[in-house]
Description:
This protein is an alpha+beta fold and 159 residues long. Helices cover 25% and strands 41% of the residues. Strands 1-7-6-5-4-3-2 form a 7-stranded antiparallel β-sheet. β6 (96-107) and β7 (113-123) form a beta hairpin. The chain is globular, with a radius of gyration of 15 Å. The termini are far apart.
Amino acid sequence: MSSSSWSCEIESPVPAARLFKAAVLDWHNLAPKLVPEIVVSAAGIEGDGGVGSMRQFQFSSAMPFSYAKERLDFVDHDKLECKQSLVEGGDIGTKIESASSHFKFETTSNGGCACKVVATYKLLPGVEVKDEITMAKETMMGIFKAAEAYLLANPTAYA
């Protein structure tokens, strides 16, 4: 089966560099504090946060799976861009063979930012996508809005 993808763009009044750090690079530290009803715990489990580093998220029963382990495949701190791959957990082995997400943040004219997310996945044979894409986009929006609310309430965080 060939790869498929979905994309979304999320706008925020928060400056791009701050949201990139909080919602993507450091999300494993923020998520359990900001959305404990979804992320029970999370931690970097390998590496120093650079390319090749891995982190794991443990989820509550609000999610259809108990954990996800992801690897940072690419990061450009100057261009505010990165790519992560799901390596274990999530729907790997049950619905999908592989999955990755590419994030690109750009500054907008109002001083905030727009983040373009492109998720690419390869389904296992015989698996059809139903509501999963809508749920994935809603989850992504929730992550960014939780980080945005935190950053707006804490103007020196990730500055």
